[in-house]
Amino acid sequence: GEYNQKIDYVFKIVLIGDSAVGKTQLLNRFARNEFFFETKATIGVEFQTRTVVLDRKIVKAQIWDTAGQERYRAVTSAYYRGAVGAMLVYDITKRQTFENMARWLEELRGHADMNIVIMLVGNKSDLGAFRAVSTEDAKEFAEKESLFFLETSALEATNVESAFLTVLTEIYKMV
Ligand code: GDP
Ligand code: MG
């Protein structure tokens, strides 16, 4: 029969967290299976998409990326508007980026829908020798705040699929 690529759902997911934690490369990895050591500021597109099949439904993930707006309160409410999922990203080698998660979470909860699915993501797991945030500390924070949690490497493509697919699956359960 005829293959009809009809989109059943579009889910907006926002990436948030400090500058240089790897948000753009996580998105490049998930949307295009690419990785760059240098992220050109001019690449800063608003979002990238990837279509996945969940439970025989065609789901388009529309994933929004901040382009240098990572200063506190610089991300506008338009960025959060309509988001049904969020990835809160820190760098496992930079303690401060993890400490800042509470602030990002507060900002997210102030703007987003009550039922938003949130995944805490500890990126750069390939740099274990320089680890500054233990898996335990992150798990504890995630449990306290009712967040999903995974450590990822956009460079080595570790857990990137899992992180995004978990968020998409959890969103799907609610529609
Ligand atoms: P953003 O500012 O949060 O969007 O961060 P970028 O995606 O631009 O990444 C910042 C820097 O970290 C770049 O040099 C990336 O190549 C690098 N990077 C991103 N993800 C990883 C990772 O998983 N492992 C390693 N080793 N470097 C990464
Ligand atoms: Mg970026």
TrEMBL record:
Major localization class: membrane
UniProt keyword annotation of Oxidoreductase present: no
Domain of life: Eukaryota
Keyword Plastid: yes
Subcellular location: Endomembrane system
Topology versus the membrane: Lipid-anchor
GO cellular component, one term: endomembrane system
A GO MF term: GTPase activity
Sequence similarity: Belongs to the small GTPase superfamily. Rab family.
Annotated protein name in UniProt: Uncharacterized protein
Organism field: Ceratopteris richardii (Triangle waterfern)
